[in-house]
Amino acid sequence: MGLAPSAIRFYEAEGLLDPPRGPDGRRRYGPAELRVLAFIAVGRDLGLGVAGIRDALHPGPGGWAAAVDSQIALLDEQIARAERAKEILLAGRDCPAPEPVRDCAYLRAALDALAAGSPLPPPGPDLHRFGNAPADGDG
After folding, report:
1. Rounded CA gap, 127 and 139, in Å?
2. How far is 121 from 98, CA to CA, in rounded Å?
3. Is 104 within 8 Å of 95 (Cβ atoms)?
4. Comparing C-alpha atoms, which of 105, 111, 108 is closest to residue 125?
5. Other CB atoms within 10 Å distance of the CB of residue 135
6. Which end of the chain has the smaller Cβ count within 10 Å, N or C?
7. Cα separations in angstroms, 103 against 87, 130, 136
8. 101 phi and psi angles, rounded to 5 deg
9. Mitochondrion as a keyword (predicted)?
């Protein structure tokens, strides 16, 4: 898995891992502990925090399904934000303006909507119109 010993000790300190100790006091990592480390690695790759991984490893009263459902909801939010960013980038990619973030009408409208927490405007026929007077509030 390529985890540094310090990372493994951190996961142990955070309650994610509790390897048994041999008579000499050294940690013993068997198949069960390696599976937990693999689960932690997958969780980290998915962007789950320590608390989310802990909840999945040690589900509370709601059980495993509730812990996983909460993590899936967080991932769905991340995916929605990434899709929104992708939509803005794709719409602005072909804008002929020298500085599309400042000069492209659609990007200005999309970024204004993003800043206001509003839905993105649909791309229209003037998608790459630029060179007009600055939008309201631009000075």
Report:
1. 22
2. 22
3. yes
4. 105
5. 13
6. C
7. 18, 5, 13
8. -60, -35
9. no
